[in-house]
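Quick question, first post here. What does this chain look like in 3D?
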Amino acid sequence: MTLETHATVFLVDDVSRAVAYYRDALGFEIELYRLPDHYGYARRDGVSIHFASFEGAGPRPNSVSVPPDMFDAYVYVDDVDGLHEELSGRGAEIVHGPVNQGYGLREFRVRDPHGYVLAFGRVSKS
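> Answer (accepted):
Ran it through. Tokens below.
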């Protein structure tokens, strides 16, 4: 058996705002579930991020517990610098630009409107 993909689910207070940001700033395709105020998802290539809204259950980004920019999802990409340039041009909130980390990855991070941080990276060539 093979695992094929996965979907991270973020709790949000506004599904429409979440999917709009992922569509406009991050280049994802979006779809709202049957109850558009309750559930939606964004997909780009093999990456899926889902958004759920429940009364009394707001966003819980990891960066709240581990500031300043602990990520909530790590996405491996083939061209860190190219994607950084694309997302910067789309108006994504860049937490930090591409850097070579001490743990062997070149990455950059973005923050969504609910505070979730996505890291985009690949194994560093240097």
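The longest strand covers residues 93-100.
Strands lie at 7-11, 29-32, 39-44, 47-52, 73-76, 93-100, 105-111, 117-123.
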